Amino acid sequence: MKYIFETRMEVRDYECDIEGIVNNAQYIHYCEHTRHLFLKACGLSFAGMHQKGIDAVVARMQLQYKVPLRPDDEFISRLNLTKEGIKYVFHQDIFRASDEQLCFRGKIEVVCLINGRLGNSPDYDTAFAKFLQ
């Protein structure tokens, strides 16, 4: 897959469960943080958009857990973006940095609520235009 954005993070001890691996719900947090950093790189602020009455919300997720991350693992969270109708589809993969092993794959569909109503956001469309060609 061709990626348009990536960021590095490190597993923190408290993100792991009794089995000594990252709890499944943490991967959703990693993906969300990556999307927010991507927005910033595109010149948008998630909080700023909310203040304008534009809320990007997750509508659906497909998650695949491949190989667990463990405490102190550094990992790379990468994403690609497509648009299907009014949905922005984030294809997000997480790789262990030490060996590029795929640990997690997610397909996260996001829609925009504009003043509480489902719709297209010109702000997001403009910010993402170069990635959606």
Q: What does this molecule look like?
A:
- The protein has 133 residues and is α+β, with helices and mostly antiparallel strands.
- The chain contains 3 helices and 6 strands.
- Strands 1, 2, 3, 4, 5 and 6 form a 6-stranded antiparallel sheet that branches.
- β5 (101-114) and β6 form a beta hairpin.
- The chain is elongated, with a radius of gyration of 15 Å.
- The two termini are 16 Å apart.
What layout of secondary structure does this protein have?
Layout: E1 5-10, H1 24-41, H2 46-51, E2 54-65, E3 74-84, E4 87-96, E5 101-114, E6 117-119, H3 122-128
Antiparallel strand pairs: 1-3, 2-5, 3-4, 4-5, 5-6
Order of helices and strands: EHHEEEEEH
> What is the chains' assembly state?
single chain
**What structural class do helix, strand and pairing data support?**
alpha+beta
Largest sheet: 6 strands, antiparallel
Shape: elongated
Radius of gyration: 15 Å
For the termini, the CA-CA separation is 16 Å
Mean pLDDT: 96
Which consecutive residue ranges, at least 5 long each, have pLDDT under 50? Answer: none
Strand fraction equals 35-45%
Number of strands: 6
Q: What is the helical fraction, as a range of percent?
A: 10-25%
Helix segment tally:
3
